[in-house]
Amino acid sequence: MTEPATAPAPAAVRPAPAGPAAPANDPPALQLRDAGLGFGRRTLWTHLDLSIARGEFVAVLGSNGSGKTSLLRTILGEVALTSGSGAISGRPLGRGSTDVGYVPQKIAIDAATMIKARDVVRMGLDGHRWGLPVAVGARRRRIRSRIDELLESVGAGEFGDAPVSMLSGGELQRIRVAAALASDPVLLLCDEPLAALDLRHQQDIAALIDAQRRLRGTAVLFVTHDINPVLPYVDQVLYLAGGSFRLGRPDEVLTSAGLSELYGAPVDVLRAQGRIIVVSSTEAVGHQSHDDHAATELGGEWR
Fold it and tell me: Taking every annotated instance into account, which residue ranges of this chain make up the domain ABC transporter (predicted)?
């Protein structure tokens, strides 16, 4: 396997050392046992056993409709498993867990809104409560200090007081990462956070998330259509397709033979200059190079 090119470190973010290892008797950050999910007659996946340790980076790949985003919604407690069970740090899946941070692809923002970047991060601190409590005195100072710390940690200190409607796509994603990390989660869920970003910002955000998980020992479950920006950081790949899945190291999962079996059709996995492109005889099934858009993905409207 060709060695992947390492993405450059994002500006204004210091390289992070590996975080402290979790004690051997600590439960996994995420544990799914014989898990299945479906809607009506449609089965997205079944018999999924997935264990993610603290500090581990797992990429979730697959065509549209394979259940990638539905997997995240299940972990967030928004959708119940059809079968099996799941736990976060040994506790059953459920809504509002501060052990889980969530980085969405995007957040709808009114162009006229004057909400500041630091206000979005504040929601990450108190958003699990009913509304944002009014903080005064020492508590207000502690909250502001914590927000400043989070903004600096993601290289967003310079625009913390800027209206979010004025920020670029890359700057917004830094703010979303800071908000997701506010509760010191054991598990960080990322739902295609690189979508709609140019290649440089994809590399910056991918490196930022990796640096934070190393620093904090946070597990990362990263949904993406393109493996390449995160390939240098990935420990495991979960590939969903056609109601089935493959799970393992990138060099185990991303093979022509394995994906051909998964899709039930001939698939070629090409490696060139540290990049991976997955193509069939007629079209690609994902992981395309975003700089040339040479490939499109198999699948329908479902995510």
Answer: 30-267
